[in-house]
Amino acid sequence: MTESASQDGTTLIRPEIEAGSLKATEQVDVERKLSIVERISNINSVRKLTVLLVLIVLWEAYTKLAEVEELLFPPFSATLITLWDTIQTGELFEKIWITVAILVQGYVAGMVLGAVLLVFAVMSRVGSDFLSTMTAMFQPLPAISLLPLAILWFDLGAPSLIFVTIHSVLWAVALSTHVGFMSVSMTQRMVGQNYGLRGVSYIAKILVPAAFGSILTGMKIGWAFAWRTIIGAELVFGAQSGKGGLGWMIYEKGDNLETTYVFAALFTVIVIGLLVENFLFRNVEMWTINKWGMQR
């Protein structure tokens, strides 16, 4: 029996309750082997591919059932035929190579400049204020708006495209990474300081692993911005010596009213974006923040 006092001072006696023997749980799947359908549905790429296939089916069904003029909105089947023709002639691979080569140069250069600014921001208060001010100034500024200046400074060609790509990458990566660094707990910071870590070693061994989720997010946003910017820039002045990338292909074919080629180029842009997102960044995410238990 357990005694306890009530508010009016009287003693309450509570009876003790003794639990009986617990029976084993019945008809519950504690562990079972997943079916083939369940195992396949657990694959991230398969689920996203299913979504893409559903959208393609809806695209084809809409153009066929609504009898849309092919010049305005070609069906997926016609787009696929055109896409295959450009693959056979090698035209598509040439366009992809031109665009991706410039994109990678601008992306890497933007990442390197962002790393330099972040080291400066971490090592001094002046650097932190400088980076915060610069990101507040230039992050809202569309890279396309710098096209006239890029033409004046670097003339037509790859340098101008690389310049606007750097702008689209630099501030997105720097802002996301800086926010991630600022959110690292004081406990982790003090551990690094107690071990005598300073400067670049402190950033590499303490801040970068702790804020890698934010860094990876910034890298993905920077890639998306860069991909969008390079296509838009090529639409305006993407031709170099009579040749251009995917953006220039979209502009040139659209100007000639070859709509199926325009849709084939747009579909290629989408597919490349999906491949980079779901194979490159997804694998990096699984090998790092998922493995470290920072994200489910």
Distance separating the two termini: 47 Å
Strand order of the largest sheet: 1-2
- Oligomeric status: single chain
The fraction of residues in strands falls at: under 5%
The CATH superfamily of the domain at 96-290 is known as MetI-like
Quote the average pLDDT: 82
CATH class label of the domain at 96-290: Mainly Alpha
Description:
With 296 residues, the protein is mainly alpha-helical. It has a domain at 96-290: MetI-like (MetI-like fold, Orthogonal Bundle). It contains 12 helices and 2 strands, in the order ββαααααααααααα. The protein has helices at residues 36-41, 44-65, 76-89, 91-123, 125-138, 147-154, 158-182, 186-194, 199-210, 212-237, 246-255, 259-290, and strands at residues 2-5, 11-14. It has a two-stranded antiparallel ribbon. β1 (2-5) and β2 form a beta hairpin. α7 packs antiparallel against α10 (212-237). The longest helix has 33 residues, at 91-123. It is flat and about 95 Å long.
Descriptive keywords:
71% helix, mainly alpha, 296 residues, MetI-like fold, two-stranded antiparallel sheet
